[in-house]
Protein: Acetyltransferase
Organism: Candidatus Promineifilum breve
Amino acid sequence: MVVTKSKRLFLRFLTYSDQITLTLLFADPDVMRFGDGPRSPEWVQDWLRHTLDSYARRGYGPWAVVEKASGETIGYCGLFHYPDVNGRAEIEIGYRLARACWGQGYATEAVMAARDYAFNALGLTRLIALIDPANVASLRVATKAGLRHEADALLPGYTYPDRVYVIERGQGG
Ligand SMILES: CC(C)(COP(=O)(O)OP(=O)(O)OC[C@H]1O[C@@H](n2cnc3c(N)ncnc32)[C@H](O)[C@@H]1OP(=O)(O)O)[C@@H](O)C(=O)NCCC(=O)NCCS
């Protein structure tokens, strides 16, 4: 089911039929460079189960990013619930695209579509992005989508803090 559309992309709900595409995405060391490294097929299955659970419980989660021209699923972009970032519950906008699709403005386009859907359709009032300070491309995507550096946060399991980028409804993009 389609969630929202942009000029070249649409976002749709992920399903178990996306398992192979996601397994390839999460297995790529370039794509996972700023995460905890490549992930196993079992890890991806768990991630997908959590995603479907998030759709049912919260009405959002990470969505598939589909290139309209090819019909290919090129990654994900969507919303993640964090119970505690510097003492407050937050909703993060997260994104990850296949290496072959980088550098065409797709992440920015997907983030803007997810941002607008979150504010206008879901009625959310604040979104954050948690970004490794060395991830220059992601910092740039967040900035282009209208997010601003607000604070840093050391998340459980991490050895150094992420940047917390923020946008609030009405701030524009
Ligand atoms: C981060 C990611 C989503 C960006 O996807 P993308 O479709 O290439 O992003 P866009 O084309 O919309 O924008 C990327 C911007 O970063 C810039 N950029 C990319 N690599 C860069 C680098 N090494 N140094 C400086 N700028 C860089 C691009 O020039 C572009 O900015 P511009 O439009 O001003 O020229 C993609 O690289 C990815 O999936 N990475 C792995 C997963 C990840 O890190 N996700 C984010 C976790 S917070």
In short: The longest helix spans residues 41-58. The pocket of coenzyme A is lined by residues 31, 34, 95-97, 102-108, 131, 135-138, 140-141 (CB under 6 Å).
